[in-house]
Design a protein that fits this description.
Elements: E1 2-5, E2 18-20, E3 32-38, H1 41-51, H2 76-89, E4 97-105, E5 114-125, E6 130-138, E7 144-153, E8 160-162, H3 176-184, E9 190-195, H4 200-211, E10 215-221, H5 223-233, E11 241-244, H6 248-260, E12 266-269, H7 274-282, E13 294-300, E14 308-311, H8 321-337, E15 344-348, H9 359-372, E16 380-385, H10 387-391, H11 393-398, E17 411-413, H12 417-429, E18 434-440, E19 446-447, H13 455-474
Helix pairs in contact: 3-13, 6-7
Length: 477
């Protein structure tokens, strides 16, 4: 948000540090204050939460299947609130008493629009110290969207103080895991081989997923070691099938063999290293498909209106163009499985223009052309897009990017594993995101857990594996 004020020269100052008002005597007809504000989806959601106005027209954001942000409009009174902010903080400023306001709404305001809100002194009542303001809101195209007239009592005393910082407010959707579990439970449990769950955290995750009605586990690990860990942690693993093996390497090989023979519908990593498990899976020709194996994080964060996928952040370290094509195809398949009929896929890079010295931008351009020619199907692919342009309509609008994907991405395809892993963890630890992780491209879904994963993340990952396993019955990968 930026602002400006027409004022006498002796009243100029640093508005970033100081809030000051204008008394009635200092204000003359024609004085004007103005500010700019670019509308975001969160603005609309916060206004709805505060006012209780959940009018479906302003909040007509489609569910995870697809979201047309350009169809979402702001509440009319959100513009009125911006006018109120001008009067209360800029002109006249602190100490102003708001008496009345008329408003006319001439055009809708959409996400990404930049409004210039101005108030201009049109009349002064010396006897009652009242001032009338002409109020106007104009969008980035110069179109008037809101107008009216406000009447206030101007302050009689000078007020000047340090500018305070408003508290940060974030919206949380809440209940995402509950909704996911409720959605997948009717499908029925799947038989899952859990590979070497030889620590309390891994065993607890197994028991949680079993209790949630998601899996019927088979523990592939040294029996004596499992029983000792369970006894020490106070965990009851009685009644769970144990496939007794000598060590973690044997556990990975046995579990992969069970999946290849169709004895289990999914695999889950326990306390062994990821490469140890993946090596055993790749060594099984029956588990391979024509596609490159890749990992997807399904994430949900308070700052974004729906779940989205980050890929690949765990398997492919420096993917080639051909690898990235399969990474995109796998992510589109996952998006379809969770109900996104036409996922918007953003190919990320540091910039949104093609640069011959930046391989990520060249790969992005090639992937888009592959999608145009039908080599990648089932989604809308665009790139290169910088991260801000991929997730923010306002940022895309400012950059002049016209795209079906920009600002509304369902899938974020990162340039390499390092950038993807950092992005996912930043969103989780600093952005309050919840996540589920799954490996695609094999004949069965594979849950890769981390020791740092929360209980909710492990459960959500098992729920996604259940969803995919049932989908693979009808449409084998």
């Amino acid at each position: 948000m930026t602002d400006k004020l027409s004022r006498p020269a002796n009243l100029a100052g640093d508005d970033l540090l100081t809030v000051r008002n204008f008394t009635f005597e200092e204000i003359a007809i024609g004085d004007t204050a103005a500010m700019e504000h670019t509308l975001t989806l969160e603005d609309i959601q916060l206004f709805a939460a505060l006012s209780g106005d959940a009018n479906p027209q302003p909040l007509a954001v489609e569910d995870a299947a697809s979201t047309d942000f350009h169809g979402v409009i702001a509440h009319g009174m959100l513009g009125g609130a911006l006018i109120s902010a001008m009067l209360g903080t800029r002109l006249p400023g602190p100490g102003t008493i708001y008496l009345g306001q008329t408003l006319k709404f001439a055009a809708p305001v959409r996400i990404g629009d930049t409004l210039t809100i101005s108030v201009t002194v049109s009349a002064r009542d010396e006897a009652q110290k009242r001032i009338t303001f002409a109020c106007l809101g104009v969008n980035q195209d110069g179109q008037s969207v809101i107008s009216g007239e406000a009447e206030v009592i101007a302050p009689s005393k000078r007020i000047e103080r340090a500018r305070s910082t408003l508290p940060e407010v974030r919206l949380t959707a809440g209940g995402g895991l509950t909704r996911l579990l409720d959605h997948v439970r009717p499908l029925g449990r799947i038989c899952m081989a859990v590979v070497h769950p030889c620590d309390a955290l891994s065993l607890t995750a197994v028991l949680d997923a079993r209790a949630a009605g998601l899996i019927e586990p088979i523990l592939v690990a040294p029996r004596a070691k499992l029983e000792a860990i369970a006894a020490q942690a106070g965990l009851d693993i009685s009644g769970i099938v144990i496939e007794d093996v000598a060590h973690s390497h044997a556990a990975a090989a046995r579990a992969a063999d069970m999946a290849a023979q169709g004895k289990v519908a999914a695999l889950m990593k326990g306390s062994l290293h990821t490469d140890e498990l993946m090596h055993a899976i790749l060594a099984q020709p029956c588990l391979r498909t024509k596609r490159r194996i890749s990992h997807c994080f399904l994430m949900q964060t308070p700052a974004y209106p729906r779940p989205f996928i980050i890929t690949d952040a765990a398997i492919n370290i420096a993917p080639t163009l051909e690898d990235k094509a399969d990474i995109v195809r796998n992510a589109i398949d996952l998006a379809h499985a969770i109900g996104v009929a036409q996922p918007r896929v953003a190919i990320l890079a540091a910039v949104e223009t093609v640069n011959s010295e930046m391989k990520a931008t060249l790969d992005a351009a090639a992937l888009c052309k592959m999608a145009d020619r039908g080599q990648i199907a089932g989604g809308i692919v665009d790139g290169p897009l910088a991260f801000d342009n991929a997730v923010s309509v306002a940022a895309a609008h400012i950059k002049g990017i016209v795209s079906e994907v920009a600002g509304r991405a369902d899938v974020l395809v990162v340039p390499d594993l390092e950038s993807g892993n950092m992005l996912a963890k930043q969103l989780e630890y600093l952005g309050g995101a919840s996540s589920a992780g799954i490996v695609l491209g094999a004949k069965v879904p594979i849950v890769l857990t981390s020791r740092a994963d929360s209980r909710e993340s492990r459960l959500a990952s098992c729920a996604i594996a259940l969803l995919l396993a049932h989908r693979y019955k009808d449409a084998p990968p």
